[in-house]
Specification:
By secondary structure, the chain is mostly beta strands. It is 5% helix and 24% strand. The model has no long low-confidence stretch (mean pLDDT 81).
Length: 74
Amino acid sequence: MAAPAPAAKKKDAKPAAKKGPKSVSKKDAYKLNGDKAERVKPVCPKCGPGVFMASHKDRTSCGKCGYTEFKKKE
């Protein structure tokens, strides 16, 4: 009886890079007026302060909860 073939050795895989949470770039989210910083992007009404909404051509949407506001056509 023939012996079973040895299993192929697995190559050592590189560990996946740790990805941190995605965040809005500070230069895009705030505008400086003197000593005060003003928010440029709208804040999600469901998630609260600290969660900005993405501005699209026809809508603004929250990436966290999915809340969407459509812009009015003029």
